Amino acid sequence: MPVVPAGSLDFAALPGRLSANPLPPGLDVGASARVVRIAPGPRTPHVHPRSAEVVYVAGGTGTAWEDDVPTRVGEGDLVVVPAGVPHATVASGTSDLVLVCFFPHADLAANIEELTGPVRTAL
Predict the structure, then answer these.
(1) Cβ atoms of residues 65 and 90 within 8 Å
(2) Which class does domain 11-114 fall in?
(3) pLDDT of residue 2
(4) CA torsion, points 121, 112, 27, 11, in degrees to nearest 10?
(5) Would you list the domain boundaries of the chain?
(6) What residues contact 107, with CB distance under 8 A and at least 6 apart?
(7) Helix, strand, coil % in the chain, rounded to nearest 5
(8) At 77, phi and psi to the nearest 5?
């Protein structure tokens, strides 16, 4: 059973967030996952055209935008975003929002489209 220490994650900058793949290279689980850190401030949405996304809020508080509908979220909440729905999660307060995101699609790079707007903010 692979265990990935939190300190070993390699975060890359994406629009409005930092994202890391927590799955070890070469491990084929037929799905993909990301650990995401979102600093407070506005951001633009994105969409996953080929699968739903299941998001676990591991830390912080914020607003989950699903298309034009905002919902407040906090640590321990689970958000389910249907395939093809524009969405963005925005941190509120002064600390990062930490998410663990799961996708039933193995190639996340082929399953994400960044959008230019509308800009979303926390409630």
Answers:
(1) yes
(2) mainly beta
(3) 84
(4) -40
(5) 11-114
(6) 32
(7) 5, 45, 50
(8) -75, 155
DSSP string over 57-94:
EEE-EEEEEETTEEEEEETT-EEEE-TT--EEEEE-TT
Distance of CA 82 to the CA centre of its chain: 13
pLDDT at 26: 86
User: pLDDT by residue (tens digit) across 35-86?
Assistant: 999 999 999 999 999 999 999 999 999 999 999 999 999 999 999 999 999 9
Count Cβ neighbours within 10 Å for each residue of 54-67 and write b for 16 or more, e otherwise.
bbebeebbbbbbbe
In Å, what is the CA distance from 93 to each residue of 16, 63, 123?
A: 16, 11, 10
